[in-house]
TrEMBL record:
Gene3D superfamilies: Ribosomal protein L25, beta domain, Ribosomal Protein L25, Chain P. It comes from the Bacteria. Residues 98-178 form the Large ribosomal subunit protein bL25 beta domain. Keywords: Ribonucleoprotein, Ribosomal protein, RNA-binding, rRNA-binding. Signal peptide: none annotated. The gene is rplY. This is one of the proteins that binds to the 5S RNA in the ribosome where it forms part of the central protuberance. Pfam families: Ribosomal_L25p, Ribosomal_TL5_C. This is Large ribosomal subunit protein bL25. Part of the 50S ribosomal subunit; part of the 5S rRNA/L5/L18/L25 subcomplex. Contacts the 5S rRNA. Binds to the 5S rRNA independently of L5 and L18. InterPro entries: Rbsml_bL25/Gln-tRNA_synth_N, Ribosomal_bL25/Gln-tRNA_synth, Ribosomal_bL25_b-dom, Ribosomal_bL25_C, Ribosomal_bL25_long, Ribosomal_L25_dom, Ribosomal_uL5_bac-type.
Length: 199
């Protein structure tokens, strides 16, 4: 999985006044969990742009004055009006411990149902996976090449290589629905057939 480096500074004081001061200076208060003690730090808001405002999944290298931690983003809080980032939580990665995170779904293949006039609907844009950090995938591949019109692709049909999918077996990842145009054409064909039969 691709990684993004965030350069920050450890926070000495973590009270409301210190947090407000940090935000006023364009910094985002953050906490890193998963180690012996939580690590409080701040980083510039613009440093998180490629991590937060993207459909892709990334791991994070948090660099605090040369001391680095491998992590994943766990939570982000936005201001309800301005949408500015207010706070972020990270979880430290350990090579021998599995981690859970959401990964985007990438559609591959060509569906016969879509070629026949059906409409592809992606029910799950992201799927929750569990894996060791080294095995975290950049995306989960959803192969639609066997989907006929009206068919569904269930999570059980997804190839999982060195990771687990944390979804019930009946979770629909994608489906090919009959388009209105195809339905209308089928109805008209049926009417024509009926009329021809009467003659």
């Amino acid at each position: 999985m691709k990684s993004i480096t965030i350069n920050g500074s450890e926070r000495e004081s973590v009270g409301k006044a210190a947090t407000r001061t940090a935000r006023n200076a364009g910094m985002v208060p953050c906490v890193l969990y998963g180690g012996e003690q939580p690590v409080h730090f701040t980083a510039e808001e613009k440093a998180f742009k490629n991590l937060v405002y993207t459909p892709e999944a990334h791991t994070v290298v948090i660099d605090l004055a040369g001391k680095t931690y491998n992590a994943v983003m766990q939570d982000v809080q936005f201001h309800p009006v301005t949408d500015r980032i207010l706070h972020m939580d990270f979880y430290q990665l350990h090579d021998d411990k599995e981690i859970t995170m959401e990964v985007p779904v990438k559609v591959t293949g060509t569906s016969p149902g879509v070629l026949g006039g059906g409409v592809l609907r992606l029910n799950q844009r992201k799927l929750k996976v569990r894996a060791l950090p080294a095995n975290l995938p950049d995306f989960v591949e959803a192969n639609i090449s066997e989907l006929e019109m009206g068919n569904k692709l269930y999570v059980t049909k997804i190839d999982t290589n060195n990771f687990k999918l944390l979804h019930p077996d009946n979770t629909v990842v994608a489906q090919v629905r009959i388009s209105r145009a195809a339905m209308k054409a089928a109805q008209e064909a049926a009417k024509a057939e009926k009329a021809a039969g009467k003659k």
